[in-house]
Amino acid sequence: MTEKNTVRCQIVEAAKKRFSHFGYAKTTMAEVAADCSMSPGNLYRFFPGKLDIAESIATEDYEKHLEALRKLAVAPNRTARERLHDLLFEELRRTYHKLEKDPRAYEMATVIAHERPQYANWMLANERKILVQLFDEAEQRGEFAIDDKEITAEMIQSATMKFRYPQLWSKLTLPKLERELDGVLKLLVNGLCPGQTSSAGSEAAA
Amino acid sequence: MTEKNTVRCQIVEAAKKRFSHFGYAKTTMAEVAADCSMSPGNLYRFFPGKLDIAESIATEDYEKHLEALRKLAVAPNRTARERLHDLLFEELRRTYHKLEKDPRAYEMATVIAHERPQYANWMLANERKILVQLFDEAEQRGEFAIDDKEITAEMIQSATMKFRYPQLWSKLTLPKLERELDGVLKLLVNGLCPGQTSSAGSEAAA
DNA sequence: AGATTGAACGGATTGTTGATTATTCAGAAA
DNA sequence: TTTCTGAATAATCAACAATCCGTTCAATCT
């Protein structure tokens, strides 16, 4: 079991090097196998297919991101609104930078999104859990008033779709995207109706 | 001049028939020219290129849609919130049906969006004007409280992006999209903060 | 037995060739 | 002159061949 895991890791590491250096498409299973001093066929004892190796790499990275989001969601000394802001901005910035400077990451994201549509849903569901937790706390402190928190989390995700895979849907620069996300967040928090005070429109984070 | 316009119309009509019957790609300039009893070269006295004929057709149709939106934006006996609802739903439904039942329209939309990125921006700007007008009225009646109406219109468009070209970004059915748009709208209008009453969450329209 | 190999299969990809077609423009027609 | 033509051009596309590569599995090794 531990043995098996070691081999799995070895494969993942070899693939990681190849993928990030030559790209997913230009890396062959035979090459990865050779890097691990094994035959191509043997890879299939550890992964169902090539795409699963890529998914494994992506997930490893994503888990770190998720952890960072969880931290932000419960940061002390921040209002619920600020924490929501931090969450959404972290998401935007991470994706933007990842896809911006690294065409290999872009390629892998595209392939996985295309061949495994459910993967994106799984990511959204993970982040929804964090949002719901944030809402729970916020409600207790009377910061937000929310009927159905799960649904509301979905709606927040709908409304911020544009900022989740920024360069797939627009060619805007990061500063412009940030300004726009800030505007959308303000609207989501305060609404269009007259009523309560709107606390400051934007803050710096990180 | 009128003469020229007549010929232009004739070309557009011939192209419209061809495009909707055989598709944009499978229609040749020679065929359109033949339908108009003229040589292919002569088409270029009236249009800079094939794509411009398609654009002309698309715009003709779009102008009708815009007119419908303008009507909805000033409908009497409806609250601002209801009119905003009608506007966004009309947009969603039109696009959905158009792309759903007519693969030719989908093809043309794709080609134009790809070759003429500015075209989509022009459409958004048109619709923003309508939104701003709606906001102006709403503010006078005290229904909405809005700082910068142009910016707010942009933010509404950002937040409802997912519903503007529905089948490009998700495989959701119309009812699901409608439920989601309703949820997003509710959030945009009322905000997350506790405060004023939320008038009914959803209504039927047309 | 279980673990590993590597040749073989077939679906996808690439490169090449030939045809199609959007666009131009020199000249014919009006 | 202005209006139009249609052959010439260059870019794109479709079809086919050849190759490549992910995946499988019968045979080999431990």
Keywords:
homodimer; 206 residues; mainly alpha; Arc Repressor Mutant, subunit A; Tetracycline Repressor, domain 2; 2 domains; 10 helices; elongated; disordered C terminus; DNA-binding
Write the topology of this structure.
The structure is a homodimer of 206-residue chains.
Chain A: H1 2-22, H2 29-35, H3 40-43, H4 50-73, H5 80-101, H6 103-115, H7 117-140, H8 149-159, H9 166-169, H10 174-190
Helix pairs in contact in A: 1-2, 1-4, 4-5, 4-6, 4-7, 5-6, 5-10, 6-7, 7-8
Chain B binds a DNA duplex (30 and 30 nucleotides) through helix 3.
Walk me through this protein's architecture:
2 copies of one chain form a homodimer. Chain A is 71% helix and 0% strand. The first copy, chain A, contains 10 helices and no strands. The first copy, chain A, has helices at 2-22, 29-35, 40-43, 50-73, 80-101, 103-115, 117-140, 149-159, 166-169, 174-190. Mean pLDDT of chain A is 90; it is low at 196-206. Chain B binds a DNA duplex (30 and 30 nucleotides) through helix 3.
At CATH level 3, the topology of the largest domain in chain A is Tetracycline Repressor, domain 2
How many angstroms does the end-to-end distance of chain A come to? Answer: 40 Å
Mean pLDDT, all residues of chain A = 90
Radius of gyration of chain A: 20 Å
Provide the number of structural domains of chain A: 2
Structural class of chain A: mainly alpha
Name the beta content range of chain A: under 5%
Oligomer: homodimer
